[in-house]
Amino acid sequence: MITRVFHSAKNTFSLVIRRGMASAKAIEDKIQVDDVKINYVKVGSGERAVLLLPGALGSAKTDFGPQIEKLPDILPNFTLIGWDPPGYGKSIPPRRQFPLDFFYKDARYAHKLMENLSFKKYSILGWSDGGITGMIQAAEFPNAVENLAIWGSNAYIAPKEIEIYESIRDVSKWSERMRKPMEEVYGVEDFPKLWGEWIDALMRIYKEKDGNLCKHLLKSISCPTLILHEQKDPMIVPEHVPYLLDNIKGARLHTFPDGKHNIHLRYAEDFNKEVANFLTQSAKL
User: Fold this and answer.
1) What is the rounded CA–CA span in Å between residue 102 and residue 96?
2) Per-residue pLDDT at 8 exceeds 50
3) Fewest beta carbons less than 10 Å away: which of 74, 137, 172, 187?
4) 135 φ, ψ to 5°?
5) Longest dimension (CA), the chain
6) CA distance 173 to 175
7) Catalytic (active-site) positions
8) 4: buried, middle or exposed (CB in 10 Å: 19+, 13-18, 0-12)?
């Protein structure tokens, strides 16, 4: 869930991607979505759209640098949109809140964001928490979500995962490489508080909703779905993969045998090729 930050000397996130003699420029901006100004990064000008949904406390810039930089090269017919969920990244204010239905709120804000950006249909790449949001979004807005790719995600919280969450609660025990990007976004004092609130929210879902994140919605997902499995993922237990495959109609699987939680960063080239192939094939159907 914790990744590297792409720095920019300007407030706008400016990244030029060369494609022959042409170039695509990633532009960062904000747009009003109901009661929140949502920060987003946009790159490419294709008619089809892909929404990038980050992990816990993540943003477009912290979580999807290699995708924003490289995917437009192999998906020239797509526009990529990366967002900062309300209360994350630069979508502050408001201060992030974690009610029991916070994933559902994120899904509705994300869908409204795409509507406000004039994309009636779009695909989703969702990592970790973003995968949970993406599954909810695909189920609740089936006429809008064309394709769904998720990794490091789960539809429910298993008992073993409660132990995992508690083991990573104390951010002072993290390596500097893992901790610093989030400290740069939220501040040295506020990051541990926000991280603790996120863990507390998952604990409440486990206790008050029997760990159900979105498992009752899986059978309502009708779009082509790709599950990218990190075989050595330390954040989720292995049982989630067969559960998702059994409950999402037609879902297909691609495994990274040595992958941990962040395959889109660690194996960015192979990951990008796999999702590009998935989106391109689905577009032809």
Assistant:
1) 10
2) no
3) 172
4) -65, -40
5) 56
6) 7
7) 128, 233, 261
8) middle
* Cα first-last separation, the chain: 33
* pLDDT, mean over the chain: 91
User: How many of the other CB atoms lie within 10 Å of CB of 169?
Assistant: 13
Asked if residues 136 and 103 have their Cβ atoms less than 8 Å apart, the reply is yes
Contact 157, 205 (CB under 8 A): yes
Does the CA dihedral 156-106-271-139 come out positive or negative? positive
Please give the structure tokens belonging to residue 279: 């989106």
Contact 60, 44 (CB under 8 A): no
Confidence band (pLDDT; 50, 70, 90) for 283? low
Beta strands in the chain (DSSP E): 15-19, 22-33, 36-43, 48-53, 78-84, 122-127, 145-151, 225-230, 252-256
Q: How many residues does the chain have?
A: 285
Give buried/exposed letters for 98-121 (b at 16+ CB in 10 A, else e).
Answer: beeebbbbbbbbbbbbbeebebee
Q: In DSSP terms, which residues pair with 150 in a beta bridge?
A: 126, 227
Residue 285: pLDDT over 70: no
Phi-psi region of 152 (alpha: psi -120 to 50; beta: other; left: phi over 0): left
Mean pLDDT within 241-259: 97
